[in-house]
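User: I'm curious what two different proteins look like when written out as structure tokens. Can you demonstrate?

Assistant: Sure. I'll show them one after the other, since each token string lines up with its own sequence. Here's the first protein:
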Amino acid sequence: LILEYINENNYKRVGLYLSSCSAYSAHPDEMIEALKTCYKLYFNREEYPMAIRIALRLNSMDLIKEVFEACKDDLTKKQICYMMARQNVNFETEDDDLLELIFNSSLSENFLGLGKDLDVLEPKHPEDIYKSHLEEGNNRLTAAKIDSAKQNLASTYVSAFVNAGFGKDKLLLAEGENWINRNKDSGRLTAAASLGMVSMWDINNALTLLDTYQYSNDNHEKAGAMLGFGLASASVKDENDPALALLSENLENSNTTIKICSIMGLGLAYGGSARTELLETMNPLILDISQPASVSAYAALSLGLIFVGTCNEEVAQCIVQTLMERNDEQLGIKKLEEGSRLSIARYFSLGLGLLYLGQQEASEATVEALGIIEGPIGQYTKYVVNSCAYSGTGNVLKIQEMLHSCVDHLEEKSPVESAFQGVAVIGIAAIAAGEDIGTEMTMRTMGHLLQYGEENVKMAVPLALALMYVSNPQVTVIDFISKLCHDPSNHISQTSIFAMGIIGAGTNNARLAGLLRQLASYYQKDADHLFLVRIAQGLVHMGKGLISLQPFHSDRFLLNNVGFGGLLAVLHSMLDLDETILGGYHYSLYFLAAAMYPRMLVTVDEELKPITVSVRVGTAVDVVAQAGHPKSITGFQTHNTPVLLSFGDRAELATDEYLPVSSVLENFIILKKNPDYKPEETKPTKKKRQ
């Protein structure tokens, strides 16, 4: 009915109102109806960039195709391709130029251009990040002599995160520095894989750097090279599919580590692509009981990333069948003196959950089927699937459901029987994420959980806060978590330290950096805590402050499913960090690559060449349903593009010389000359008489 009353004077305001209110709908059907009305409104007015945002939010390939085919303007079509590339949409077209934009081929080149503009191309050494000379009570002479394997491993990760995307580092690529030989076993794997992260989004450079390790006689180095190919291919694609060719042939390798890294590499390289050939090659790895539990678990998680949010029945049936047929040992559940721990068995559950990410009621049949599975893994998987299915929706009823499960005191139960409570806490954050009011209310709830919850609930609270405040270091949240970093319980203090890294990821936040330096001196004799402090320091300075982990984009309207899946993989691993991040599967940290993306605004001309224009960058203001023409940003500063956008920032053009093809200025924006623009005449200033 509303469409009858829409005209060119009011359609923007009505569209903004409908899309903003949809998040507060009482039922998922109402939300979809509101968004579809909004889509028709924009589509009928030929506002195709706005229509594609709604289509991407609805995750509907039919609507995306309809917009793409209806759009006849070449520049608008190219802008739509940029938007699809940011959302990791696997869309096929016969036009090679448009396909290159969907593949995100120019990402590395423009990122390096941004680095050059900001003068940060020089690679950084981990010591430049640690600033050990500022740590209290640190004797530099003794620190220099100790060459611990755990600290070398931490330095490798820090170097990878800090120099990500720049193509150079000061550990593996420095002359006269034989860093890989200062590591052993899985440390060599991490060192080789770090080259993939250093050359992120530049597949050709990665192939050159990893070539020597690919044919190494050392299995760990070879496994690292396989994972490196996946890391370099995250968020970008190549028509020749080098990652598929190189990694697929190693899925049959007799070495378990090489097999796991190849599987993980494919998950990162083809996240969100829903490629059927990968389903055919990886399904048998999940179903085959003779395969090691770790191989099957990583295959389930990687397939979850590849088919994220697609509700693919074949993958879902495959994982559910495996959970039914395998016993605890075959699933990878560890039996320890203090009781069984889920360990990597949780990856089966998360792989299944990712298939339904954000799909709400579409997961109900699978949740019912999970009721048949006996033992704790069935209940655990139910909570994982439910929390994933309603991620980013703000569904209050589901949050209440998760909260109820956290109230029970299960101190007499084994860790594996109470594991679902940790997932429920992360689930609350996942559902509330991306919506300000829900996030604020959840923050208070987390305080209550810390006061009254058991340890398995308390250790998940910092991880939940990290998920709600990714790359958004709010003072209140930092204060809240920094107190927990000194908790008597090792698990709570360890997850808190890691959470600080995620909250400050890519922000170069000086306050966080100072707190982490204090923690480094406090825990200098505790190897595990110090390892996590170093990782957190690397995350805070990720990409030298140019890369974010924030999965919400396009004015926080769209959720990048692949990025959110990568974050969930790491946070779920942290729930059992003795077995994963601090154990033999520390390379699961590299799942963060799925969420890593430059937090930049690059303006390009009609030939898609970068162009420098003045833009105002300030804090975004909510202007929904406000009368007149209110300002959409406040406290702005004027910069020349390319510019960095922090969490909650919004940009607008400072002059009318150019017109943006899309009204939301983020990532890559095409500008066209304004035919009505008249440059302001500068009036000569009269000199005052003395």
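Here's a second, unrelated protein for contrast:
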Amino acid sequence: NNNNNNNIAIRTTGFLNTPHEGTKLEFARGEQQRGQNVLLARLGFATPLFFTATLLSFVLYWGALLFPPFAVFFICAFISYGWFKGILYSFSALFIGVPRAHLYKTADWKQLGNDSRKKSPLLERTLGVSEEDGKPLGMAHPSSLGSVKEDYDTSATISKQRRNMDIPTWTSKLDNKEKRTLAEKFNDLRHVVIVPTYREPLNVLRKTLNTLVAQTCAKDKVIVVIATEKNDKEAIEKVEALIEEYSKNLLGLFYTVHEKISPAETDGKSSNVAWCARCVQHTILEKWNYVPEQILVTVCDADTYFDEQFCECLSYTHAQNMEPYNCTYQSAENEFPNIWMVPTLVRVKAVVDSINMLGMLSSKYAVPYPYVCYSQSLRTIMDVNGWDVDVVPDDFHHFMKCFFKKDGHFRLVPIFMLTGNNAQEHTNWFSAMRSRYRRAKRDAWGAIDLSYILSQWYQKRNVLDKHGAFMLFVDVIEHHVSWSSYFLTVMLGGMMSAWLNPELETYPFGIGIRAMALIAFGPILFATWAYIVCDFYVRMFLVQDRKYFEANSAPLWWQITSQVQWLLMPLADFIFAAVAALDAQLHMALWPKMSGYRVSKTVDRSNLEYKIAQRHIMPNGTWRNEPFLNNANINTNGGGSAMKSSSSNGLYHAIESDGSDARSERERNHGRGL
């Protein structure tokens, strides 16, 4: 059988409900825990709160009384460490991440994947690139022994033994040929995109599917699986509508229905994805006759908006990777799509988180972890037995699981493709703030994995790289402790210490602890300017033509004057970092089960009853508020829904099926803030 015949044969749709026979439920802490194991686990759950409480009590109370000089030094050092991280992330994003994102956006990944003689922006670590036909090109297929710039497909200088040792290969069952060269692997890879959903509006899912069918390889390589929950009574009806609308534009479109099998399962994305992946394995391997090495699995949220070259870029990165089964791929997640539709406190936190993600992917001194949308080979997923079903943060915990299953030989590979997710939006200010707080608490729940890290470290102590595992534990402790304690240290550390011990007003060198804390905090202004510049550049030049990105929907004068929002950053950090993290740590110490799991509600702006005002520029250049979709015309085209405000003469398209009209409007109105 040739590839074309097989593609036609498997381009189908339906319900997947049979897990792979070699899979089973996986638990991070065991399905049943008794005696000593329960005690050790509970001690591990309380570890984050213990570290945070010790640090805060030292800074705010007993440090000033017992060790005054050291308390002054520690407070100033901790404040300085915070702005050092801010400067590191913001400047890395500005001077490394943004140029690479621009390079990735303009590259022709299909061309690169089929000609290994061209230079790749993936491997070119300097900012200089070669130009050919106006497109940046990049380096040849590498060898793990060095930066080999010749095409290894034809080079006689690379011995056969070295090729067999260094280059990962697989044999496809579709044509019984070994895939060795860059082009062979690039064209043989297929993509499975898992979209977990729970009570998401239909048009939110449509927008995500629209960006998937817009992939340059959608019909030949992309299989979408919508992972639903049994408790979602409307899910089947929505999925059937999506299958009818989109299946003809994809290699496959399926859905699964997750139902709890064990009482130890935790509600949430991880258990849903675990069941979906098991069913996908059965279909991919047993029915379609693929091999695991051919499949790249991407897990995303229901409101994820992909670049149209995302899958091609991922295929190229994976085909170039000399250790493709010991890594997770992470794109540059951001929350710019609806950045002007959320409360100011939510917006400023979303901007910081988005730039931080780009900065962490760019800096060699940062330790990024998977977040929201990440990808792995199906071979990797099978090696680690999939996702655990008794955890809440699927991305962070799954990375930890892979790290220990691979004996510490596991890493994150950045992909500088900007992938958008909506910031927390709601029908009113209070509900949006509450939704963002719940998400922050859910993210902070990842601190519960400290006990998992300790237990895995102990079990694998004879084979694990002890230094690497220790540094991983320290990094996780630092992340969660600084998350919950930095604001209180900055804002209250100097004040409380001076009040408890007036002698500290003479430390150091007669300056005083409060003045010294302000001096130590000063350099954060440099990071703030870098965040502002990076924010503007990304919105103006990297996502201005992206589907469903309304990053420039406000006029330019408002985007500039609204930068006073940065004065609210301390308050946003207090609510969505310190309070949320302390809440999560206290919760996990007292009752380490996140009951009542709630997903962040996604607003369906296609609903005519949605009355939030939409701000936009009128054709005459004036800026006004009017109810969203007032006197709206609703059209359907090709299965998607197109909604156009008649009052604006078609200037603003809320949801479109192909994106062509919206993109042309954005191009015509670029510079007018649209």
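A detail about the second structure: Confidence is low (pLDDT under 50) at residues 1-9, 124-165, 607-674.
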